[in-house]
Amino acid sequence: MKHGRASIAELADLLNLEQSCIIQALNDINEFIKVDDLVFTSKYIDGFINQIKDRVDQTGWVSVLAQAQSISLPYAFLQTILDEKLLCNEDYIKYSTLPDLILSEEYYNKSIETIKGALEEASEPLSMFKLQKSLVIQEPLFYVMVDGLAKENVLKGHFRGRRERAVFEPTVYRDRQVELIFSLLEAAGYIEYETVVRHYPYMNPTDLLKKNYPNILLLDGCAATEDLVKKLEAKIQETYDTSTWLDASAWAPFVFTPADATGLLEHTMTRLTHLTSPTTSRRSLGSLADPENRLIVLESRFVTSTRYLEELIKSSTDFLNKRALSEIQQQKKTHSSKGKKHRADDKGLVLTEQEICKYLIEECGLEKSFARSVSTTLRRPMTDAFQRAIQTVYLPSSNNGSGTLLSPESQWIEALKKRQQTLLSTLHQTIVYTTQAIQIFKDESGNKSLEKYVVRVLCLEWLYNFLVLQTLSEAYDIAGVEDAVGVSEKDLENQKKISEDHQKMAIQRMLEVHSSDVQLKDLHQAALAGKKPDLFLSYFESSPPNFFKPLTENVKKQAWKDMVNSLGRLLNTCSLSESTGPSILHITSLICFEYIYHNTPFSVSGKYVPLIIRHCTPQLEAKDQSKEAKLLNDAHAMIMAHVKSKQPVDLDLLAKVKKQGQQWVSKLQDI
């Protein structure tokens, strides 16, 4: 009664009795409460219950285990007493999942409202771990309350994950992000799965797109809308109607992988094939219904028609006749005893895909990739035509415009003259426009170096080709051309293989024939001096060849568009490797210049990449494109480090440079 509590062992010592006697005596005393080896008075029990009640009222909650340890009471006994004497009051609460905690109703309601308020105000995904730390609510209790709110389904949002890993996703956030994703999709006609995940990471991107856009086309790395498919259908229809060809991989958006472009083309062709199937009404077929002119897909990339291929074969008559003549002339030297009719059966008379490809590129102006692809298809019909030409090679197929039939050798000379005129016109434009573009640079030493490049490279090349044209105009046969130029027939047909030194030797040789032409000699001396292109520019103005086109503003704009398209095609064909790094940066720096200065054709070698980047950097920064400027400078530093000290090339950085160049080309093509 004095202390409110005692142990049976203590009482036995005080009274000098056995513990069994004490226990027997306690059983007869009703005002004491015995728990295990402890004895309490009712007043003592009521006292510590009131202490716990006061603590709950002050702090909002209390741990039964902590209290049992602080007053040295059995945990189970304290829980039972509190359940009977404290929790019978509605002002106090205990969760069945947290039996150790007792809460005041006021604290419970306040905590629930605090959590609920924070979640209702959220407009972005909210981490429950961070929210618990910011609200300073006891950790197990916080997550039990959150679970309760989730089960009640009263919040406008969803919980993803459990406990400290849980994230609350507000409905307003989901709706906003989904709306953004589909606005991007509808604006571009396609969207990358990476973009979808970046804007909404809580759902599989293909499931999200399919759920909200049932007609969407799911590809390997992105998705395309019905509008994009219809645009490709229209482009294919235009290709078919105009008897030309289409590179679907180049037409597809620049972010499309080869697999994406192939998937888009296959899907579109399947639709077109369905439209042109025998079960489809004739009225809906359009021009694609022509049974004699079918659509053809090559390498899952190129689209053309049978009519276009037939036109290529027809246009190859001169090439085949010339090739046949060359074959017969060669055989005259080695097989003079064979009759002409037996020559077509000679195993040595073959038309290779490489020859056909070379012809398609140089004579028909086809891009290398398409020419390589279509040469496989054309090999058999062109070989048949070649065999026929062997038998009839001396039957002329064209005339010189005056009614006189031309021999195959004369046809070859005329064809080469036309090509030289086209090449000279292009070089003329390049020299003039590049010289104009040089004035944009405000670097005295840089300008001088650029002007030397124009003179020593471009002007020298123009002079060489102009002298070749004059030689062709005065020649009677192929042997005469070879002798005058000092270059073989094969090298004349493929001028890119002629080195600069070889060009200089050929120029010297041809000038000896045209020794009376003072202007050409002056141009030669100016090219060798390599200081300024003024003499060439003056010559172009005062004595332009009759095949030159006036350099009007429209001609300049078209030259600029052709240059942008050409740079774009070159960039697309560059693979990512250490060896192609300088080329990718060179092409991208030229594209950057055209992006900044519209309608300003500019063509220089990779030697001037540092000058271009140094000049373009402040221009990009002025356009709020500091990141793009830094990208070019970082890539240049990386490539220089690789060249000088063989440091590794960062292919990821190189990929970013290529992608940036492709983006600029795409924007320029939309102008």
Automatic annotation (TrEMBL):
Recorded hits in InterPro entries, A to Z, give: Ufl1, Ufl1_N
Determine the domain of life of the protein's source: Eukaryota
Give every E3 UFM1-protein ligase 1-like N-terminal domain span.
2-198
Q: A Pfam family this protein belongs to?
A: E3_UFM1_ligase
First and last residue of the signal peptide:
none
Q: What is this protein called?
A: E3 UFM1-protein ligase 1-like N-terminal domain-containing protein
Phylogenetic placement of the source organism: Eukaryota, Fungi, Fungi incertae sedis, Mucoromycota, Mucoromycotina
